[in-house]
Design goal:
Layout lengths: L10 H24 L3 H22 L5 H25 L3 H24 L10 H8 L5
Helix pairs in contact: 1-2, 1-3, 2-3, 3-4
């Protein structure tokens, strides 16, 4: 029985990922620009939606495609809007904003790699990895 909560990486995965990323860009612009609430408010709203979707995914006991893709969509929407906020509202520009985001990503991956000795999500052996990836805790 497969208890993974991570989608298999297939051609369909990448098609869905591209669609989710594109929709994320469009939805972020809809909220911030078309509805004219600004990037700061949009970032806060979309980060809230991301946290709700993430919490639901982490509390799930098994893989639910809807929850999985809701988190992916919320991630791309919130991330795109936060990037636009850093570029357009804070006027950091794409280079500085990208450097900040890359630094955050590399830091998280380095801490994960250092603590778990791997970045794999396929074979979860430790409590820390199980909690970080699936939200499950063992007692």
């Amino acid at each position: 029985m497969n208890t993974s909560r991570v989608a298999q990486v297939t051609l369909y995965f990448w098609i869905m990922k591209i669609c989710a990323t594109t929709l994320g860009e469009t939805a972020g612009d809809l909220l911030s620009m078309t509805l004219n609430v600004g990037y700061a408010v949009s970032s806060a709203v979309l980060m809230g939606l991301f946290l709700i979707a993430l919490f639901a995914q982490l509390k799930s006991k098994k893989f639910h495609p809807f929850l999985y893709w809701a988190v992916i969509l919320a991630t791309s929407t919130a991330g795109t809007t936060m990037s636009d906020y850093m570029d357009r509202t804070l006027e950091l520009g794409y280079a500085k904003g990208s450097l900040i985001l890359i630094t955050c990503l590399v830091t998280v991956l380095a801490v994960w790699r250092y603590s778990e000795k791997t970045l794999s999500v396929d074979n979860i052996q430790t409590t820390v990895r199980r909690t970080a990836i699936t939200g499950e805790r063992t007692h």
